[in-house]
Amino acid sequence: MKVDGRVERGEQTRRQILLRAAEIASVEGLEGLSIGRLATELEVSKSGVFAHFGSKEELQLATIRAAAKIFATRVVEPASTAPPGLARLELLLAGWLEYSERRTFPGGCFFYAVQAEFDARHGRVRDTVAEYGRRWNDLVRTTIEDVPDLAVDPAQLAFELIAFLEMANVQSVLHDDPDAYTRARTAVRSALERATRRP
Fold this sequence. Notes:
Keywords: DNA-binding, Transcription, Transcription regulation. The protein is mainly α. The protein is built from nine helices and no strands. The chain is elongated.
């Protein structure tokens, strides 16, 4: 079936808007987004941007969903190619560190940035950010649960591992620490060795 050229161009414009919106939000937060700014930067009309989203809140929600899709492509999907167990967990954690270190988003981890922005607020945007945070926490925990012969509580280990990842992100982004990701990889490796009783 042939796709209408106008529809395809519209979808391409929407993708471009959301990618730029996610890049901005990773640095300035979701409140830093505006239809006027995106229109100017992408050289499209304000009415054209507005037609895609209708309001700032809808733009913010769409930006979160777009960032989640990128995160899944860069971090979750590659790890899922490994069989359940330690190899998948290691791939998942390594993928997150690479996603942050290589600046998939210029501000580091998109979700770390927007969680800090919305953690004490109320509303649809905050609830959506929180939901994606829960999904990530649950994914790490359930991936840990598939590792045989664990010597620790999976929920506790998930908490600690995610803390290592997020600390690397903030130390790199905020303090420009060149050793942040190396330290995080060392911490992750040590935690997994203890958890699996590997020599």
